[in-house]
Design brief:
Layout (H helix, E strand, L loop, with lengths): L6 E3 L4 E3 L4 E8 L4 E7 L2 E7 L3 E13 L7 E4 L3 E4 L3 E17 L3
C-alpha cells in the first residue's frame, strides 16, 4: 500500500521518546483509525490499549512481542500483530516507516 484516499488527518502529532518516534492519526471514510509513523534508530517499549497491526514500509526493526522469548526481525513489507492491553519492545536499526491499524475500541 503506497497511498490512502478519503482520510481525515489529526493535525496534532503523537511524539514519543524525545521526538525519535512520531506519528499522525488518520481516520478513514469508514471510521477506521490508523497511525502513520516514523521511528529513528533506538530502543523503545510501547504499551497498547487495543490490538494493533503494524505494517512496515521502510526500515529494519527487531520486535519482542508479549509472552514471547524470541525477537523477530522485521523489514519493509512485513507486519506484526500486537495484542491489546500489552507491552512490546522494538529495537529500530534504521529509519523505519510504519502504519498502525487498530481494532475497534
Amino acid at each position: 500500500m503506497s497511498q490512502l484516499s478519503n482520510v481525515t488527518v489529526n493535525l496534532n502529532a503523537n511524539i514519543y521518546f524525545d521526538g525519535k518516534v512520531i506519528s499522525r492519526t488518520i481516520v478513514l471514510a469508514d471510521g477506521q483509525r490508523k497511525t502513520l509513523g516514523v521511528m529513528l534508530p533506538g530502543e523503545y517499549a510501547f504499551t497498547t490499549d487495543v490490538a494493533e497491526i503494524m505494517t512496515f514500509s521502510k526500515g529494519s526493526v527487531d520486535v519482542l512481542l508479549p509472552n514471547t522469548r524470541d525477537w523477530l526481525s522485521i523489514s519493509a513489507g512485513m507486519s506484526i500483530d500486537v495484542p491489546g492491553d500489552s507491552e512490546f519492545k522494538l529495537v529500530v536499526h534504521s529509519v523505519s516507516d510504519y502504519i498502525g491499524s487498530y481494532a475497534s475500541a
